[in-house]
Amino acid sequence: MTIANWLYQTALSWPNRPALYEGDVLRQTYADLLQATCNRAAWLRTEHGVQAGDRVAVFAKNAPEYIEALHACWWIGAVVVPINCKLHPREAEWIIRDSEAALVITQSGTLFAEQADIHEAALCMPVRQNEKLTPPAPVSDQDLAWLFYTSGTTGTPKGVMLSHGNVRQMTLCYALDVDAAHPNDHMLYAAPMSHGAGLYMFAQIRAGGAHLIPASHGFDSEEIIGLAKTRGNLVFFAAPTMVKRLIAVSKAQGYTGEGIRTIIYGGGPMYANDINDALACYGPRFVQIYGQGETPMTISVLGRDLVADQSNPRWQARRASVGIAQGAVTLAVLGADGTAVPPGVTGEICVQGPTVMQGYWKNAQASEHALNGGWLHTGDLGHLDEDGFLYLTDRSKDVIISGGTNIYPREVEEALLCHPAVFEVAVIGVPEPDWGEQVLAYVVFEHGQSASVPELDSWCRQHIAAFKRPKRYEFVKDLPKNSYGKVLKTDLRTQAASEAAPV
Ligand code: AMP
User: Fold this and answer.
1) Of 58, 173, 299, 379, which sees the most CB atoms within 10 A?
2) Which of 327, 283, 325 is nearest to 300 (CA)?
3) 291 CA to middle of ligand 1, Å?
4) How far apart are the C-alpha atoms of 92 and 58, rounded to whole Å?
5) What range(s) does the AMP-dependent synthetase/ligase domain occupy (predicted)?
6) What sign for the dihedral angle of Cα 442, 448, 449, 453?
7) What residue numbers bound the domain in which 471 lies?
8) pLDDT tens digits, residue range 146-179?
């Protein structure tokens, strides 16, 4: 079954229901959204020669045309490659080439104008109107819907292959465990639609709820509070850092969450103080999910009642957990020998179930490694308690999560190492109240050479996405290493923590 079928059926059942708002302005009913999707599907096929199975990359900010663009691809059986709009065009280009995309849709339509072999079109380009309304092309459950690039610790992005079956199961699990979608909801997209926020659109499409793209096309606390007051029944996904910022602004305004129905948070650690604060301000409007690209949004869940519970003797510990296994998956914490460890013992979090990816695009070795023994190995470390609640203790890799977005130290290190004055570098994440973590680079210069912080900063801006560049630098004579010559990042973290501690 194609995931585009939900839009088709809802538009037939409820053509006049509001489907899409931009800020407070109604842009499309479901009948309009269906028509726009069919227009765009015809445009993809006839103007751009896109065929079933072809990849279409979308490298754009959240926009009112985003939902129809994605559905137009599925309408003709094509595969969407959503690219984080914050990536550097060079990084996006790598993904476009690796996925062998037949077309890339960007805001301007001219971003890759100098690359003759990249076929590009603008997201808002006028398309022929009033194309015939046809149902979406049939596909099998295994056919790919969403090819999502995540970076490995090696710094090379990997394409996570998600099928129509994977996305359907994720959506069923959303409805079962995360939130029941209602026709009078407004699903707000404050976080990037190329990621979890976009993946979570389907339950609302099925329910005939409205989708709401903020006029800023991004995250702005005051705007969200304004929309909660005017539109009401807001539901949205937010990284923990967004929740924290929203609560700070709410407290300053004396606003207590009216008009917000549900905030789904996840994608990075939520600190106990922050969720306690959020609950004190808004009451029980929060659901936590833990997932990853390889089993999108679907590993564990801490439902609304569990987040807010104060009746269980262990409620405080539970609130700091990432909840219980979602209904569609089996969760296990495996030890080094590949067998399950008892409750309380830390091991690698592994997942089985119908949301687990088909593998990595053109990367059999990485797929085998990640799916070894029939389990998805998440690379996250944690433990279960006696009641089945999962606690994340650490990430086995050194990924930095800043503002809910993953930053892979190796990528940053490689960019800095290309600078002629840099001899060695180690990049770590250090706790930072607003963003969760910030990027700190320890730099050793070539003998007799040096570079200033602004120089290194502008170097990084030229080579990697701006959000990945270090916010702090420490210039050191050498890096701590073990006997194999491997840099000891744990020592650097301890050093950074002791430097940050008040004296
Ligand atoms: P991504 O594949 O970019 O979505 O990143 C997934 C990673 O984010 C996971 O493997 C975890 O390390 C982290 N993560 C996701 N959800 C949570 C959560 N609720 N709490 C803490 N870390 C999380």
Assistant:
1) 299
2) 325
3) 6
4) 10
5) 9-361
6) positive
7) 399-500
8) 999 986 444 578 999 999 999 999 999 999 999 9
- Paired with 157 in beta bridges are 151
Residue ending a domain, choose from 368, 390, 412: 390
C-alpha dihedral, 464 to 289 to 376 to 160, nearest 10°: -40
Same domain for 345 and 412?
Answer: no
**Same-domain pairing of 385 and 415:** no
Q: Ligand 1 centre and the CA of 392: distance in Å?
A: 10
Looking at the CA of residue 379, tell me the nearest atom of ligand 1.
10
Q: Which atom of ligand 1 is nearest to the CA of 160?
A: 2
**260 and 208 share a domain?**
yes
Q: How far is the CA of 292 from the centre of ligand 1 (A)?
A: 5
Q: What are the two backbone dihedrals, phi and then psi, of residue 240, each rounded to the nearest 5 degrees?
A: -50, -35
Q: How many domains does the chain have?
A: 2
pLDDT digits (tens, 9 = 90+) for 355-397: 999 999 999 999 999 999 999 999 888 899 999 999 987 566 6
Pocket of ligand 1, candidates 87, 377, 396, 406: which has the most ligand atoms within 8 Å of its Cβ, to mutate? 406
Q: Are strands 286-292 and 260-266 parallel, antiparallel or unpaired?
A: parallel
Q: Could you tell me if 328 and 408 lie in one domain?
A: no
Residues 206/171, Cβ–Cβ less than 8 Å: yes
Mutational pocket test of ligand 1: of 292, 349, 377, 437, the residue with most ligand atoms within 8 Å of the beta carbon: 292
> What 3-state DSSP class applies to 183?
coil
Residues 436 and 302 in one domain: no
Q: At what angle do helices 5-13 and 30-46 cross, to 10 degrees?
A: 140
Does 160 lie in the same domain as 32? yes
- Indicate if 206 and 334 belong to the same structural domain: yes
* Most ligand 1 atoms within 8 A of CB, residue of 86, 290, 319 to mutate: 290
Which residue among 392, 395, 405 has the greatest number of ligand 1 atoms within 8 angstroms of its CB, and so is best to mutate?
392
**pLDDT digits 0-9 by tens, 230-249:** 999 999 999 888 898 899 99
- Closest Cα to residue 147, out of 78, 211, 208? 78
> What pLDDT is recorded for position 394?
58
Domain CATH number, residue 26: 3.40.50.12780
The encoded tokens of residue 476 equal: 């050191």
Mean pLDDT of 446-453: 94
Report the separation in Å between the CA atom of 207 and the middle of ligand 1, taken as the mean of its atom positions.
Answer: 27
Report whether 371 contacts 356 (CB < 8 A): yes
- C-alpha–C-alpha distance, residues 438 and 441, integer Å: 10
What the block records as the tokens of 178 is 């995360």
Q: Are 58 and 70 in contact (CB under 8 A)?
A: yes
The full length of the chain comes to 503
* Ligand 1 neighbours by CB, cut-off 6 Å: 150, 266-269, 288, 290-293, 322, 378, 380, 392, 395, 406
Q: Are 79 and 146 in contact (CB under 8 A)?
A: yes
Last residue of a domain, one of 356, 390, 424: 390
Assess whether 339 and 415 both reside in one domain: no
